[in-house]
Specification:
Largest sheet: 2 strands, antiparallel
Low-confidence stretches: none
Helix content: 40-55%
Strand content: under 5%
Mean pLDDT: 76
Order of helices and strands: HHEEHH
């Protein structure tokens, strides 16, 4: 829009005779007001000149419009990553593997538990029957031998305890021992 106004002004300056003819046929002359430029969607801001004669807080006016210095962009924070969705938004492969393993384990448990119980019951029912009389006698002899060994081990451990107390001096003098007489 600003370009059109400038071209219109240049055309009027170039043809002053044409301008006089147009004014006579038109309405009476009014003082000219500059047209407001249309604002685009994103305002273009001219860069502020960095000359030494311009003070930092001075307002620059061009063509009757104050020049606004551009706002510097805010630098991104490198430590924060923002995912907007898209190709980066996916499930990690480790999570997929864990889910597969979980469902496979669940299937094995659901199928294997009843099968193992059925197999155990089958073994219980079949049983091995009664043992032969020779095996029964042999098992009784082994049991008696184990009892005899347990008694001997108990006697050995008691003798060991007695000797450790004697060496530590807890029983006192040898004359105070219960089995001895002097």
């Amino acid at each position: 829009m600003l370009v059109r106004v400038m071209l219109h002004q240049q055309a009027q300056n170039a043809n002053p005779s044409n301008q006089n003819n147009q004014r006579t046929t038109e309405r009476p002359e009014r003082p000219e007001r500059p047209e407001r430029p249309e604002r685009p969607e994103q305002a273009e801001r001219p860069e502020r000149p960095s000359s030494p004669d311009v003070a930092p807080n001075e307002i620059i006016v061009r063509n009757g419009v104050p020049v606004i210095p551009p706002i510097p962009p805010i630098p991104p924070i490198p430590a924060i990553q923002v995912h907007t969705g898209g190709p980066q938004d996916f499930i990690p492969p480790q999570a997929v593997d864990i889910s597969y393993a979980f469902f496979a384990m669940l299937a094995v448990i659901l199928i294997g538990w009843p099968l193992s119980r059925a197999f155990g019951r089958r073994l219980e029912r079949s049983g091995r029957g009664a043992l032969a009389p020779a095996a029964t006698e042999q098992l009784q002899r082994i049991e008696q031998a184990l009892d005899a060994m347990a008694i001997e081990v108990e006697r050995i451990s008691e003798a060991q305890r007695y000797l450790t107390k004697l060496q530590a001096g807890q029983l006192g003098e040898p004359s105070a021992l219960p089995g001895e007489r002097r």
